[in-house]
Amino acid sequence: MVWLQENWIIAVVGLVVAVVLLWWLFGRNKAEEIETPIAPSDEPKKPLEAVKPEIIAAEPARFKPKEPAPAPVAAPPPPPPPVPEPVAETPLAPEPEPAPEPTREPQPAPEPAPAPAAKADNLQLLKGVGPKMVALLNGLGVTRFQQIADWTDADVAVIDPQLGAFQGRIARDAIVDQAGYLARGDKAGFEAKYGALGGELQGS
User: What local confidence, expressed as pLDDT, does residue 189 receive?
Assistant: First the structure.
């Protein structure tokens, strides 16, 4: 026991080796007993043979029987001719009427000759109107006493700003009233109100 306590490592190793040897011996014998030999079959199997296709020799075309030609199909009988329908007598077409003669378009009447423009009045006969103001009035299309006599307050309000330096002269010199006397040819009335006329009126 004293030796076993001092050499316990050697004892353990020897025990493990002994167990391994016993397991190897007994385990191998059991495996050989379990394995049973497989008896070979008495009759050896034949290898599979490939199926040979049956080859049928083709007969020459000349020995083939001729197929009978199809019987001709009888054509259907022609349909009976159509019975002609009675043709209605068509009335004779009326004779075409003669085409009317083209009417001549009336020629437009000649335009009347424009009336001669009224002769311009001498606007310088108005008191307070000189050559420069006359030129401004003519530029606005004012050439006769009657035009000035027909002016309304609205007309004066439009024309007066266009007279430049003479703006305000229409109302201050009563030019519309003067033109009314001269348009009527009332020389006496004009001179009685505005003084002697500085020239002769046309047609007086």
Answer: 92
Of 82, 163, 73, 69, which Cα lies nearest the Cα of 171? 163
Instruction: Measure the CA–CA gap between 190 and 175, rounded to whole angstroms.
Output: 12
Measured CA to CA, the distance from residue 19 to residue 166 in angstroms comes to 154
* Nearest residue to 184 via CA among 204, 160, 169: 204
Q: CA torsion sign, 55 to 61 to 62 to 64?
A: positive
Both structure tokens of 31: 């495996």
State the SS3 of 105-145.
CCCCCCCCCCCCCCCCCCHHHCCCCCHHHHHHHHHCCCCCH
What is the longest distance spanned by two Cα atoms in the chain?
Answer: 188
pLDDT per residue as tens digits for the range 60-71:
445 455 665 666
Instruction: Quote the CA–CA distance of 98 and 5 in Å, as a whole number.
Output: 163
Cβ atoms of 173 and 126 closer than 8 Å: yes
Residue 27's alpha-carbon distances to 17, 20, 93, 117, in angstroms, are 15, 10, 136, 156
